[in-house]
Amino acid sequence: MILQELNYVFDYISANTLGVNSYWAGWASDRTRSRATNDLGEEVGAEYPKITFTPPQGELRLNTSKNSYSCTLIFDDLLGYNNDGSLNESTQFEKWSILEVLVERFFRGLQSYTKSILPDYISLDSSVSKRFDSFSSTQRLVSIVVTFDITTPVMCEFSPTFPTPTPTWPPDSLVPGDWIKGRQEYIEVSSGTLAWTANGLSLPSNLYINVYQNGQLLLISQYTISGNTIVIGADYHVPGSSYVVEAVWKV
Questions:
Q1: What is the CA radius of gyration of the chain?
Q2: DSSP β-ladder status, 22-25 and 50-61
Q3: Do β-strands 129-136 and 123-124 pair in parallel, antiparallel, or remain unpaired?
Q4: What is the three-class DSSP state of 102?
Q5: pLDDT digits (tens, 9 = 90+) for 193-211
Q6: Which of 3.40.50, 3.30.2000, 3.40.1130, 3.30.200 would CATH assign to domain 3-153?
């Protein structure tokens, strides 16, 4: 596997991680620069939360014909405002809590995907380090910087293919390992009890669910799930609020 293929893997996993809105590969210092065109892979219209893959450190192990990459992924979110510029009063620790969920979702997806292509084709070390950060610049960002090691064969005739993400239920066909996405809206509801009826499936665990209140992602601690019912905490529900519930399942 070459570095470009590894970038494709991270891009694919990011696109299928619920709650992640964009992915980019490049220098960490470029994350807050204005990129007006998409020439040479430049980024246009990125939305947060966002994942950035920075240039890794590499090692060629001649005795085993393997490449080892020390990788860094930066999970960013906006602090103080939303993608549309509206006010967001979430604190740094609330934003970090949301980003931690995205980190876990990403790496669970990465583990699942790497096992599905070829055994030991990508070896992900079990230890993933996280560093929490925030700063003010052109954009105010709160971040989790994740570092980890990946090992791949130097030469291999196999080149992984990246299937198109499965559309909203019902898809045309499913095979074991596919991910199904579902979404349901609740407009200006009086009750904080939301019944899931979108696709006839039982809701998965909290790890695979996002709940938005008036466009704001709620923390897992702000609602409970019982069967196919989501109950917004009494301290957080406001009558007349609109909700969106997103969920993913693995076949």
A1: 19
A2: parallel
A3: unpaired
A4: helix
A5: 999 887 777 787 665 788 8
A6: 3.30.2000
